[in-house]
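BUG: 3D viewer hangs when loading the predicted structure for this chain

Environment: internal workstation, default settings.
Expected: structure renders.
Actual: progress bar stalls at 90%.

Input used:
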Amino acid sequence: MRRQVFAFSGVREPRPGERGNRPLLEHVLALGASRRVGEGPVRLCYVPTAVGDDPAAVGAYQRVFGGRDDVVLSVLTLFPQPSLPDVRAHLLTQDVVLVEGGSVVNLMAVWRAHGLPVVLRECWEAGVVLAGPSAGSLCWHVGGPTDSWSDRLAPFTDGLALLPHSNGVHDDMAGQPRRATYRRLVAGGELPGGYATEDGVGLHYVGTELAEAVTARVGARAWRVDPDGAGGVTERAVIPREI
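Structure tokens produced before the viewer hung:
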């Protein structure tokens, strides 16, 4: 089976004429459909752990996908207990597991308490597409900068590490020095080299290698960032395909 991850930075403030995150979500569904044999709807499991299983977040996804003939939506919540009787069995039947953004620190703590890291690795190995924005992007990597502990960005290094790279999300975020912080942490060896995404940009990995970057926002980019061995970094733009 082809192991796939689609990790992206969501569009927080759509510009006039933009469709927000919708193109990225449709791309996730297309990846899920591509792994299926024969016809049938895409089986999508939404996991809102990083926002504490917020009912508003669940309701938003139910409104977007609940009435579609080409999608079978399920939701895995973990508060106060798992909403599914056999989490492993259910996730292994899915085409896509989509993880919400929020607190990556809380996300990983709760997942580990419920044994999800082992299950999600098994899903990845079985070809289930693992996806998500922000915390749902960081979690598949070694880690990246996060404001989960406080407003001050700090290095998070406790991700699932299915992908042996670091990840910087919202690399162009106004009012928070995410771009500079990510590069400083890579330069200092607190994070390994990896990929940063500006809002609207997604990274499609096949195995552990980047297959392509895509964007829902014209002009947005991804970046490959590595330590240069002299206390700084090298970076190169990864020009995404518009979707």
